[in-house]
Write a structure and sequence with these properties.
Layout (H helix, E strand, L loop, with lengths): L2 E12 L5 H6 L1 E11 L2 H6 L8 H12 L6 H15 L4 E11 L9 E7 L1
Antiparallel strand pairs: 1-2, 2-3, 3-4
Helix pairs in contact: 3-4
Length: about 120
């Protein structure tokens, strides 16, 4: 049986980008995360200890979005690593998707997106 905890449509204003100007000016970002886990016991017993607390999940993402980096790939990998570290025995797969709105590519683009699945 597959169980998934997800946070979708998280929004942050942060200072990421390959170019120094991007890290200085900042931009709007969106984050989605999906964590495959087993929360059958939590569902049966109505007990938060048997699942992944999505408030803790949000804090992991918030922490990494607040650290200025050149690559979104680096942020996503750090989030995945922290999720596995915190809930190592109860995580089967993590998918993180990060969107950078209006990236500076010299043309019209709603968002650039990276996805990591591990």
């Amino acid at each position: 049986m597959k169980h998934t905890i997800a946070l979708e449509g998280l929004e942050f204003f942060a200072y990421h980008g390959f170019f120094k100007e991007e890290r200085k000016i900042g931009n709007k970002y969106g984050v989605d995360i999906f964590v495959d886990t087993d929360f059958k016991k939590a569902a049966q017993e109505d007990d938060l200890d048997g699942t992944i607390n999505y408030m803790d999940l949000y804090e992991i993402i918030k922490k990494h979005m607040s650290i200025s980096t050149k690559l979104l790939e680096n942020i996503a990998q750090n989030v995945v690593d922290d999720v596995y570290e915190k809930w190592s025995s109860n995580v089967f797969k993590v998918v993180v998707k990060i969107k950078k709105f209006n990236p500076p590519i010299g043309g019209v683009c709603t968002a650039s997106v990276i996805t990591i699945e591990q």
